[in-house]
Every structure is written in structure tokens, then in C-alpha cells.
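Q: Given only this backbone (373 positions), what sequence would you predict?
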């Protein structure tokens, strides 16, 4: 493909509450065996983009470990490959990334050394599947300077956490409002952009000179009159992990057969780092209904409408309902967990009952009772 890829995976989101205290949002576990960033990486490789840079910063240990080998996404190649860039102190700069535009500016050498004419910019915290080639074709066809991929959200959606796009009949962006307090327009930006590489370098360098740091505010919105910015409509599944509720809903969507079929049974595939684990084991007395159970799990109790990540242990006579149980969680005999997100490596004591029954999501932080003296 005639483009290089940039995945912005360095930010933190306070609306994720305790879930983002130990990991970057791009490293959030998804659908039992995946991380959020796997979807953007898979889209890149499936679109035949051979050179991708991932810009990480906040709580990057888990994310960098996940990206330690590029072979899982077929980026282990002589030409191109997967590049992971974190902030570094230089003679000219002693700052962390101060925004999305600044993150690109601090790694602008990557763009200058590349030869591809276009750049695909994506976020690492959205769940979707798309062919970037189709966006690039539309970008060239319209003669756009920048193409923004948008998604029409259902009527009544709260769009206060998104960038809202208005277009004319040709698809050209006439207005772009970042995180409006109130809007009846539900056509939102997905954080995916196509732009010519030389133009991106020019705009980023102009921002750096003027101490401007945000891609949306200081490039898109500021240039919406001066540049030809067009929108591309994504008409398939897309969800951004912007809050605890979004994260919970995105995971639970995978219990829907249509969503599961779209991501895992329709070409192309979604890839992730694979661990050598045995298949899930269901002991006598186990009962599982409409749930995803990952490798390495041992199930003794009842699991209903839940997602159980790798190496979890569910004790005898347990009841797990409408919950997300992350990696290496131990749930003792007779425990009841409902409407919860249980953090990795946590322990739920025998006969303990946790979670709200009114539908509110409860986050259970890491509790390592197993390892205490």
C-alpha cells in the first residue's frame, strides 16, 4: 500500500477510572483473548500497510510488552515493520508528549525517512474492522487534503465525548466541533485520518513552531476552511473505549452472534499475541450460558452472559452474571459476582457477594489475597 501507518496509543482517559491506572487504554483486554490495539494493528496489516509506528506514553509497560514481537501481526519483515516510539529526552526536547500533534512532532524523523506518499493515522483504543485502502481511494478521488473517517451513531447517543462532523452534499467537512456540550448531529469522528505525508510534515512543523500540540484542535479544526477536508462514512461496527461504560458495552457486544461473526468468522482476521495455554476446562457441575471462556480457565460454577479472560479460576457453586473477569482471577467457592469488572490477578473470597443488582457496573481492583502471608 502507498501509505505508512501511525497508531496513537499514548493517552490516558480519566473516564476509564481505575481500569487505566495500571495500563494504557490501548492495552485494555478485549473479547477474552485480545487487546484494544490489536484491532487497529490488524486493520493495518490487512490493508497491506507494511510500515507502522505506535506512539505510546502513559502506563506503557503492559502495551510495550504486548508489542514486543511484531510477528503476530505479520510486521516481522526486512522492509518496513512495526516501530514503537516512547518519549525520549534529547538535546532539543525534554518534554513528554503534550498532545497528539506533539507526539507526531517528536517522532517526525519517522515520517521524513519514509517514502510512501500517504499516512494513515488511527487511534489504538477503538474496536472496528475496515480496509484503509477504501478510505485512501476516496481520499484520492475527492482530491482531499485530509480525509476524516466518521461514523453515524444511533439517534439519542451522547456525543459529548466525540468530535462531531458536519458535511455538505459532496462530503466536504463544513464544521468540526470537538466534544460539544449538546448536539443533535450524531455523525462523529472515529479518530482515523488520511493525509499526504509531505502535508502532514508541514502542518506538524507549523504546530511545533507555534507551540500547538493537538491534532484535532490545531490541525483539523484550525484548517477546516483553508484545507479540503472530506469525511468518509464507516458503515460497519465501531466503538471507542472512552469510559468504563463504553468498555463494558464493547466487550458485551461480543456475546452477540452477529458481532462475533463479523470480527472472528469473516475475512480478514483479527490477530493478537498468542500464549501457550491449555484449552478451558469445565469440571462436573459447571454451567455456561452465552459467555466467552478463554484458554487456561477452570470452570466449576455457573457463568451467565459474561466474558472470562485467560487463566481464571471459577470455584464450585459460584455464580458469575453479566460480568467481565480479567486474566488470572481466582474466585472462591460459593462467591457471587454480578455486574462487575474484576481486575487481573484479583481474588474473590469464598462465599463473597459483590456487584450491584441495579445495573451499575462495579470495578473490583486487584486484591492479591492468594499471595499474602
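A: Predicted residues:
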Amino acid at each position: 500500500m502507498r501509505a505508512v501507518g501511525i497508531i496513537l496509543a499514548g493517552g490516558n482517559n480519566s473516564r476509564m477510572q481505575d481500569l487505566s491506572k495500571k495500563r494504557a487504554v490501548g492495552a485494555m483486554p478485549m473479547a477474552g483473548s485480545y487487546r484494544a490495539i490489536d484491532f487497529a494493528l490488524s486493520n493495518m496489516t490487512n490493508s497491506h500497510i507494511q510500515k507502522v509506528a505506535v506512539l505510546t506514553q502513559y502506563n506503557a509497560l503492559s502495551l510495550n510488552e504486548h508489542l514486543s514481537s511484531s510477528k503476530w501481526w505479520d510486521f516481522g519483515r526486512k522492509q518496513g515493520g512495526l516501530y514503537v516510539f516512547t518519549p525520549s529526552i534529547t538535546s532539543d526536547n525534554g518534554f513528554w508528549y503534550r498532545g497528539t500533534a506533539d507526539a507526531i512532532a517528536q517522532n517526525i524523523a519517522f515520517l521524513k525517512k519514509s517514502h510512501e506518499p500517504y499516512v494513515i493515522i488511527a487511534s489504538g483504543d477503538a474496536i472496528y474492522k475496515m480496509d484503509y485502502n477504501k478510505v485512501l481511494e476516496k481520499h484520492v478521488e475527492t482530491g482531499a487534503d485530509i480525509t476524516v473517517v466518521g461514523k453515524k451513531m444511533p439517534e439519542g447517543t451522547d456525543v459529548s465525548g466525540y468530535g462531531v462532523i458536519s458535511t455538505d452534499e459532496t462530503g466536504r467537512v463544513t464544521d468540526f466541533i470537538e466534544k460539544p456540550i449538546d448536539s443533535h448531529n450524531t455523525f462523529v469522528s472515529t479518530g482515523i485520518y488520511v493525509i499526504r505525508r509531505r502535508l502532514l510534515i508541514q502542518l506538524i512543523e507549523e504546530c511545533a513552531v507555534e507551540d500547538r500540540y493537538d491534532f484535532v484542535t490545531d490541525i483539523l479544526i484550525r484548517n477546516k476552511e483553508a484545507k479540503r477536508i472530506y469525511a468518509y462514512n464507516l458503515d460497519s461496527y465501531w466503538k471507542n473505549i472512552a469510559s468504563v461504560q463504553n468498555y463494558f458495552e464493547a466487550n458485551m457486544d461480543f456475546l452477540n452472534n452477529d458481532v462475533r461473526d463479523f470480527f472472528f468468522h469473516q475475512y480478514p482476521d483479527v490477530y493478537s499475541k498468542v500464549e501457550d495455554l491449555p484449552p478451558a476446562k469445565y469440571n462436573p457441575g459447571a454451567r455456561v450460558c452465552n459467555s466467552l471462556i478463554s484458554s487456561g480457565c477452570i470452570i466449576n460454577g455457573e457463568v451467565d452472559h459474561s466474558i472470562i479472560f485467560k487463566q481464571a479460576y471459577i470455584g464450585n457453586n459460584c455464580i458469575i452474571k453479566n460480568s467481565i473477569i480479567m486474566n488470572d482471577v481466582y474466585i472462591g467457592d460459593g462467591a457471587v459476582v454480578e455486574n462487575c469488572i474484576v481486575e487481573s490477578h484479583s481474588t474473590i473470597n469464598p462465599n463473597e457477594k459483590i456487584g450491584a443488582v441495579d445495573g451499575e457496573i462495579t470495578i473490583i481492583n486487584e486484591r492479591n489475597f492468594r499471595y499474602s502471608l
